[in-house]
Amino acid sequence: MKAPRITDTTLRDGAHAISYSFTEEQVREIVGGLDRAGVPVIEVSHGAGLNGSTIQQGFSKTPEFDLIRAAVETAEHSKIASLFVPGIGTSEELRKAVEIGIRVIRVAVHCTEADVTEQYIRLAKELGIEAVGFLMMSHTQPAEVLAEQAKLMESYGADCVYVVDSAGALVPEGVRERVSALKEALSIEVGFHAHNNLGLAIGNSIAALEAGADQIDGTVRALGAGAGNAPTEVLVAALNKMDLNTGIDLSKMMDLSEEVIVPIMPGPIVIDRDNLSSGYAGVYNSFLLHVRHAAEKYQINPTEIMEELGKRQAIAGQEDWILDVALELAEKKKALV
Amino acid sequence: MSKVKAAILGSGNIGTDLMYKILKNDGAMELALVAGIDPESEGLARAREAGIEASHEGIDAILADPEIRIVFDATSAKAHIQNAEKLEAAGKMAIDLTPASVGPYLVPPVNLDDHLEAKNVNMVSCAGQATAPLVYAVSRVVPVHYAEMIATVASRAIGPGTRQNVDEFTRTTANALMKVGGAKTARAIPVFNPAEPPITMTNTVYTVIQEKDFDFDEIKKSIREMVEDVSEYVPGYRLKGEPMLDERDTPWGRLPVVVIMNEVEGEGDFFPKYAGNLDIMTASARKVGELYASHFLQKEEVRQ
């Protein structure tokens, strides 16, 4: 087994957890810490990717290009990456981010819609940066389907394709199957992005490595959407114990977690009822705060909303369905009274 | 009463569904020809089966018939740019269902009267046809500072053209929310959902209002009237729940936001019912053709 390349996405996935409120100062501090610790790739953008600042997702408190610029200026060794969701972002934002200095774009789509990424993966390669395909909600499709979709991304020029467990719904066996299928089908690298809804973020990341994954995501202190991700510092510690040297300094990561990240967090990220029901129902993690808000407003149990969203097979970008579901549940409840 | 002869250019799925819609609604148009470029195409076979003349000579077949006055172009943006010139030179009215945007955007209940003498009109995009009327319903009561719409459609109802150019779809739709809907700024975001069984097209429209004083009941009334107007030619067009008034943190401060949820179910003429996004394009195009045909006939009556 070889040590994976680690991408820290605290400044992207973590944005969901703090309602897109990262400041330039925080970005400089966090990127500085990650860079000094030796993290090779740092992702910075709105949680929903470039141009994600919308009513649907939540507006960014600071324009994201200011945050990306701060990250690029701060990083000495690390590459700065951004997430890009076709339809939310357009070529214009991708070009602008590249102009500012990102060196990796991660093009994310629901895991059956890879053909939508062609325009953007090709553009990224034309612009001379690394292109990563990001197959979201990977638990919804069997390994063969994911492998076919990943092959499309490879044919557009992707340098790596990720199996993304957006809902934190996969168990190690499912991760192994999926990563293995991609490794077999592709000649490019394969990555894995975990969420911790079932308490398996680290375990699943290790399973992905065992199946041959080349790249793994983490967030400091698990600061990511919903139940959070594989904590980068814990990942580094576990890999050290396995004699897999990521080149990342564990003690610097622990200090960053304790001294910089914790003070930013509204509270610790735990697997509470909402996060567990979300993962169990296979619901996209960044829905969490929107679901809590709707549940409170319409006096419904958040678990019921999560279950219904799971039944309806809602995917990334469908925050508006939360309101629709909440209203329907509230109506039903009224009818019963 | 004499009728205005119309033709469909493009014998793919959109052209075929449009054919069935024209045939099923008796009006001022007479469908004289369906023209494609593939002699083996299912669309041409279906046209013949329905008793309509069909040709695989494409635009030339249409240009050869001087009596054809209205042409629905259901080919591609690239093809339409060339077709547009030829049709104009031949004095034929073009109703463009491609994203070419040669002529002005047309959304029947909003701006038809502004373009009655146009020679070429564009049907925007499916999401534009579905949501520009809703934004307009708000902006005719109170100015809309920012409009955002999320269109969720079944993956199976999204063709390769849109998939290869999502940029174009988002840009065109956002433009329509401004130019037709009357919003000062706008965003349009598509979501392609592969759920099985396929989901019906659903749209959510958010409109941000900066004015302090406005009558929400007046806005709701305006929205209801607009939905009625659209459902007259797209029967499966309806509201999902009542429009809501919410308050959100925006880059312009904490402001009132009108949230409108809408569903578009197709008629199932050729496309499955869940593909309301495709249905609203053909239904709107038929409506536009019908209105122009009636307009032509009226003008002739006045002259006689």
Walkthrough of the structure:
The complex is a heterodimer of chains A (337) and B (304). Chain A has helices spanning 13-17, 24-37, 64-74, 91-100, 118-126, 143-156, 172-185, 201-210, 232-241, 250-264, 273-281, 288-297, 302-311, 320-336; strands spanning 5-8, 41-43, 79-84, 104-110, 130-136, 160-164, 189-193, 215-218. Chain A is α/β, with parallel strands linked by helices and 337 residues long. Chain A folds into two domains: 5-264, TIM Barrel (Alpha-Beta Barrel); 273-336, Helicase, Ruva Protein, domain 3, CATH 1.10.8. Chain A has an eight-stranded parallel β-barrel, surrounded by seven helices. In chain A, β4, α5 (118-126) and β5 form a beta-alpha-beta unit. Chain B is an alpha/beta fold. Chain B contains ten helices and twelve strands. In chain B, the strands form two sheets. In chain B, strands 3-2-1-4-5-6 form a six-stranded parallel beta sheet, sandwiched between helices. In chain B, strands 7, 8, 9, 10, 11 and 12 form a six-stranded mixed beta sheet that branches. Chain B is globular, with a radius of gyration of 19 Å. Classes of the chains: A alpha/beta (337), B alpha/beta (304). The interface between A and B is medium-sized, with 30 and 37 residues.
In the CATH hierarchy, the third-tier topology of the largest domain in chain A is known as: TIM Barrel
Main sheet characteristics of chain B: 6 strands, parallel
Radius of gyration of chain A: 19 Å
Tally of separate helices of chain B: 10
Family (chain B): Belongs to the acetaldehyde dehydrogenase family.
Active site (chain B): 126
Catalytic activity (chain B): acetaldehyde + NAD(+) + CoA = acetyl-CoA + NADH + H(+)
Protein name (chain B): Acetaldehyde dehydrogenase
